[in-house]
Amino acid sequence: MLSIKNIEVVYNDVILVLKGLSLEVQEGNIVCLLGSNGAGKTTTLKAISGLLRPDNGDITDGEILFMGTRIDRKDAAEIVKMGIFQVMEGRRVFKDLTVEENLIAGGYTRTKGEISEGIEKVYTYFPRLKERRKQLAGYMSGGEQQMLAIGRSLMAKPKLILMDEPSLGLSPLLVKEIFKIIKQLNEIEKTSILLVEQNANMALSFSHRGYIMENGRIVLDGDRDYLLANDDVKEFYLGVSSGKKSFRDVKHYRRRKRWLS
Amino acid sequence: MEFLTQIIIAGIVIGSIYSLVALGFTLIYKSTGIVNFAQGELLLVGAYVCLHLTVSYQIPFIFSFLITLIFMFFFGFLIERVFLRRMIGEPIISIIMLTIGLSSLLKSIVQIIWGTDTRTFPKIFSHEPVKIGFLNISMVYIFALISIAIFLGIFSYFFKTTKTGVAMRAVASDQQAALSMGIDVRRIFALSWAIAAIVSTVGGVLLGNINGINTSLSQFGLKVFPVVILGGLDSIIGAIVGGIIIGVLENIVGGYIDPLVGGGAKEVFPFVAMIIILLIKPYGLFGTVKVEKV
Ligand SMILES: Nc1ncnc2c1ncn2[C@@H]1O[C@H](COP(=O)(O)OP(=O)(O)O)[C@@H](O)[C@H]1O
Ligand SMILES: [Mg+2]
After folding, report:
1. How far is it between the farthest Cα atoms of chain A?
2. Transmembrane residues, as ranges (chain B) (predicted)?
3. Is ipTM > 0.85 here?
């Protein structure tokens, strides 16, 4: 349903961040995109959702197709209307709006009727949000804010949700809860999900497929079981091996990867 | 006692007009980050358009008022489209310069069309003051307070319950996040200008009915600064409360200190207050400390 073909992204006309990245999301799948800090994961999501422009970023090469239509020249609002919704890194709830107003904002592209239906649906997934519906979002805990951020995405009835590090800064227990809900959304709402994470172990176990990126490129991809069993993945992302790898080892790893492929 | 009460009532009326103008200013600042130095000129244009419709076309006041509001809505919208849209992403200082330029331009246009003499609205309200308890309040004050209350009611309904109103607050709260949910941020910018033009116009028309109008009316735009510094640059409630406080204090100073010093204290008071507040609290009395987007 989503297919990224060889895109290049440049910030401020000079900083080349994505260097020919390709990636596919099949309808109905949860696909995770893993990689260390600065690899370009957020940039990839923003390239899809049309949010690069405010950051002064540009797609300079390649193309992005969604349900067969090119979207890399469209603006953010059109892309939301087509059915892609990005849950941004750091939750980004509207702090001085109430929970319910946050949801209304999430349903901006929808009709009045769809908004009230949407709010009810969000409350069935997150009863806690219903209890706090009149509360300002800024006064909620990190976990509740993440639930609100995900709930807000449901309001737009997306076909594909892009999630940027939903587990960031949450306790292990909450992380589990959030991932369970992501799984539910995928199964019940039939929403496809592209999940960006640094928490590789958890993300992979909840995904159908995964991509691993380094320095603006995909270096490895495959289905869940393949990646979970892969020695390199174990070593670099799942923290199975002992000791931290140095940068030189990572470079070596990349060189080897290229030689392998 | 009687004197003080009369002063306070007049202060509340003028102060709530400050509130309206400050509301417009804050709206633009919150959603677009632009400091609008042309707020007073929006008031001026609105007041003259309404006067013109009422006097030259003999349209009954209430209708010319409504037509003016519609006209000013599009006028505000247009200013954003024509002048400010192409400035998105430019340095904030350039944008401020642009609004200063706009303020001079609008003021000159008004002077060219309508001249510089003071003009008055035809008497719509009887001069007989209404007796409420022991107070004598003039009709025009009552009309002003009621219309301001109605407008504030409409706006609070709009911002709290409509999708567009909530979206405007969302844009003010986090622009990129708002963009990510498909909110048309440019349209919201234009709408902020349109609404700011409307509220200023309401203020201008009311003032015109109270005191008559000439081009010095645009100085009301500068009064906005003490008001928002008191109320917090980014707080709508702050703008409303700040306006009334400044209006009342200013009138008290005018009533009790001006006779002692021979005038002028009233005009300068809000700015003295502003300087003192800034020295103590650089972000205003109720403003948030974080520096808003650039
Ligand atoms: N707005 C920006 N302007 C310039 N460089 C940026 C911008 N955003 C991100 N980058 C750079 O792009 C690279 C990838 O960033 P990002 O996509 O945020 O990585 P990740 O999400 O994987 O941590 C980093 O080197 C970062 O410094
Ligand atoms: Mg990131």
Report:
1. 57
2. 6-27, 61-79, 91-114, 134-159, 188-207, 227-248, 268-286
3. yes
